[in-house]
Amino acid sequence: MPWCPNCKNEYVEGIRVCADCGCELVESLDEPQKTEEETDDVVVSAPVNEDEDDADLPSQKAPKDARLKGVYEEASQKAAEYKSGAFTLIAVGVAGIALLLLLLSGILPVQLSWRSQPFLCLVMGALFLLFLALGAASLRSGKKLEKKAGEEKAWKEELWRYSLEHLSAEQIDETCGRETEDTEELLYFKRMERIRETLFARFGDLEEGYVDHFAEELYGKLFDEQ
User: Fold this and answer.
1) Number of domains forming the structure of the chain
2) Does some domain include residue 157?
3) In terms of CB atoms within 10 Å, which end of the chain has fewer, N or C?
4) pLDDT tens digits, residue range 128-160?
């Protein structure tokens, strides 16, 4: 005999819905049933065919965080970071050495025992000298990167000149293997691959990371600004 899982009322055969609460009847009260509130929270998902190609999905604009993110950092930016870190380390090292000299000369009103003072001064002196050494090394690295930044600037000017003369949005779409069912995200990767192939064919001696970085900028100018 059917039962109402909410009202616990028994009905005759043939009745499928409770007359009091409208709940669907069950054959036994021992069967675990979801409450009405739980049923409202259920989200029914469409079946997914795992073998289905992504190209069959509806077209949508690719989010920027799904795009190729160039991990390449321009030399000019790295040079600025190195120089900033170098000046900080040198400033801390100089200030520390000055503080240590004031401590040893007795100008600072700090009283240390004769046993602890040599050890403390030795440790502090070594630490501040290390800061100075690291700052000097960072400064040298920053100067080397400044030289590389100048070379990068010249390369970038040449890349822009060549790209704007030989690449266009229409030409890339015609040669990248674009298909009508391509999603925006898939089309993005096809366009990027075509740009990279063209740049490597012309500038094969450039770093791959730098080419990816430039290709991202070029893509934004050709397609995102349309």
Assistant:
1) 3
2) no
3) C
4) 999 999 999 999 999 999 888 888 888 889 999
